[in-house]
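Quick start: what a row looks like.
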Amino acid sequence: MDHPMALTLQSILAPLSNALFPPMCRHCGDKFVDGLSNILCMKCFESVPSYREPCCTHCGLGLPQGGFEGIDSPRCKECGDDDCYLDQVAAYGPYEGPLRLAHHAFKFEGMEHLAEILGARMAGCMVRLAKADVLVPVPLRPERERERGYHPARLLALEIARATGLPVVELLQKSKPTPAQVSLDRSDRLRNLKGAFENISKAPIPSRVVLVDDVYTTGGTLEECAGVLKRAGVEWAGAVVLGRTERRAGLI
């Protein structure tokens, strides 16, 4: 346990240290005081372009303005008219630049407190989705959660719940380990995820759910989760994500 005097000294020295040695923004390279931890100045984070309507209803990708007037459910060229378990996706913005840096720090560098600001941005996307009953975080293998110390999708879901009032319900578990997705192309990613998730709910299944995940790349994870939920009795399955890779085959 930290000694009270040590905590007091730390609270005095930390602001002084930041004033004398301000962090450098990883995006623009400038020194800053106001920002996200020690990674991004607030100016760069606020510059993140968020998607505006119209967006592809299947993958959340932003579409050209004025090109889809009068179309209720626009689809991008990559999604086409394919039949999917996933009914709708809302993404905050393209997974690049400052948003990618913030996400990487949150997920891979132990900065779990960034869930608050990132989850708030995702909550703003919920207006694009049809009305749902619950939020369902995409599950993580228990050993991965123990290794990391937290579950990123669950933290984001809890922040969205705080803003929207929707309950967070754990309906899924990852039933088998899968190789890291980052090293795989699209077809291998989709094959990698077959049978990776299962429904664990013993209670009546909700009719309408919103899956919560951090990044949409191929959509394989969300599609697999939506399929499990649909087979369990869910009528409508949407998803909200922080970032959308601009090219499906691109690697995170």
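That is the whole record. Residues 1-47 form one domain. Helices lie at 4-20, 42-46, 97-108, 115-123, 142-148, 152-164, 186-193, 220-232.
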